[in-house]
Amino acid sequence: xxxxxxxxxxxxxxxxxxxxxxxxxxxxxxxxxxxxxxxxxxxxxxxxxxxxxxxxxxxxxxxxxxxxxxxxxxxxxxxxxxxxx
Length: 85
Hints:
The protein has 85 residues and is mostly helical.
């Protein structure tokens, strides 16, 4: 987990959003968070792999998962995360 992962999770949760990578990147920067588009794309893949976000449709929209919400609430430890292959 990186600081950028927490930023992405918090943004999706706080704003109750479902977004693809490009609009997420644009909105994060619009709200004052300096993060690159390639970083957003990379971190979305890692967060999905660990079950913290989920793809909500085939259009590439992502939302925070219940595990992601648990992680933000402190109810899920990083050591408990495994790839969801």
